[in-house]
């Protein structure tokens, strides 16, 4: 396993509310762990929410005695959600804070994925496939047949999230168990990348670069080239 990650403020924002974590070595009972979180709720609150989500999740996993990756991630993320929710309710400066979160583990020749919000995980090979499903108003409109997917990218309510860590006292993430080709690469990213760069172009950048550090830099650079309207975070994994 090899991975590289990069987070960037972007060209328009004054602060970075994204947080990332990537570790190719065991984290508790998990063989590895990769996370991208995109905070919301104001300068201090958004940064705090994304950092808390990752720190609490990682620490919970380190102490876990469970074996099933999905069960481990579920317990950890539910616990992190509760802690963020309590912090937001106990401090007026943090009121309303929340964060998206996408997490992945590669173990026993399977890819295990959990997500809340609109940060995404893709599998990239001969084509690019989005594994996660956005928890957003626009995605709900698309699924209900009320909006064409091509028009969703520039929809005025694109950034309205329908599910986030910390926004309610209880949240249930989506979970996925995926078979994959060992030659494929895995991408976790915040919407600062996926809103700015088309999926096919993301695939081309990943396929064209063999060095993972240069891959993450190229993805961030391309999002900034197209305007960098949000914080940009990427983690790329090679099996």
Q: Can you lay out the helices and strands and say which pair or pack?
A:
Layout lengths: L1 E7 L9 E6 L9 E8 L2 H21 L5 H22 L7 E2 L1 E7 L2 E7 L3 E5 L3 E3 L6 H7 L5 H4 L21 E5 L6 E5 L1 H4 L4 H10 L3 H14 L6 E7 L1
Antiparallel strand pairs: 1-11, 2-3, 3-4, 3-5, 5-6, 6-9, 7-8, 7-10, 10-11
The number of helical elements comes to 7
- Tell me which CATH architecture applies here: 4-Layer Sandwich
Mean pLDDT: 91
Total domain units: 1
> What sort of overall outline do the alpha carbons produce when their principal axes are compared?
globular
- Based on DSSP secondary structure assignment, what is the total number of beta strands? 11
CATH superfamily, by name, is: PPM-type phosphatase domain
